[in-house]
Please model this.
Amino acid sequence: MTEQMKAIALLSGGLDSRLAVKLVQQQGIEVTALNFVTPFCNCTAKSSCKMEARKASEEFGIALRVVPLFEEFMEVVKRPKHGYGSGMNPCLDCRILMFKMAGEYMRANGASFIVTGEVLGERPMSQRLDAIRIIERASGMAGLIVRPLSARLFEPSIPEQKGWVDRTAFLSISGRSRKPQIKLAEELDIGDYPCPAGGCLLTDKVFAARLRGLLKDHPDPTKNDILLCKVGRHFAGSSGSRIVVGRNEAENLRVEQLCGPGDWLLTAVDWVGPTVLVRGERVNDADLETAAQLTAGYSKGREEPRLDVSCKLVGADTETIKNVSPHESLALKEAISG
Model:
């Protein structure tokens, strides 16, 4: 009896990767999925990549391994061999890292090749033909990556050459239009897939600027530091500290969740307003004064002549009440980049 062929799929949970898995599954190949998770995914709490990948794996009846990436990925972000895209996105080096790890998992689990939902020309940095070839060579996976959605636009991979998969059952989709994939999803009875949104925060100019500033002051940030970059308005304190102002109730809660010992938390006394976090190694009184003015200026009491603001040091029984003018924060908004 012939042993069943095995493949490892990179499953983001989006439509392209779901289609790729389905097309390979239809050929009787046993598929196991990997879902790589970084702190830079632009997801919502209701629809995360990990959640979508789990839904897809359950729908297709395949095993899923979620792989958190932080230390390895931060090294790529800080020192990308192949450079950045429009922001701080090291797209080629990111794909190289993921394919290397997928290759290791493939060999360790007796699989024969990798499956991805990549579409030629869909992503301007990492899915150009030249970029794809660079990624394949640098990851050590040249010839072992099958791209069912665009396979017929490439030279046959080793699995296609050897007949492990039927190349004629694959497609020749290219470009950024989603119409071919949506049509294919209907044909394959794949529904309830997420809309094309989100993506990588490293391409966002505001987030990239925050991250550059963080890495300049703290070359080895924690995951908590990175997650804090995703929340609120950001201002710089005089000591090099960061002042983060929650923009709504959900962000106020998130700011509070991310605070840790040594951080300061500020709230307006007797007024609805933002939760404000001050983080730094040398937070001084000038930083707290600035943060208090911002707290007052973004509160419902911003029209009052002066407001009391509570400043609590997390992890210590320390609270300071600062009486500040909300109107002074107007100049801060102009003078301090967030």
User: Anything to note?
Assistant: The chain has twelve helices and eleven strands. The first helix runs from residue 15 to 25. The first strand starts at residue 6 and ends at 10.
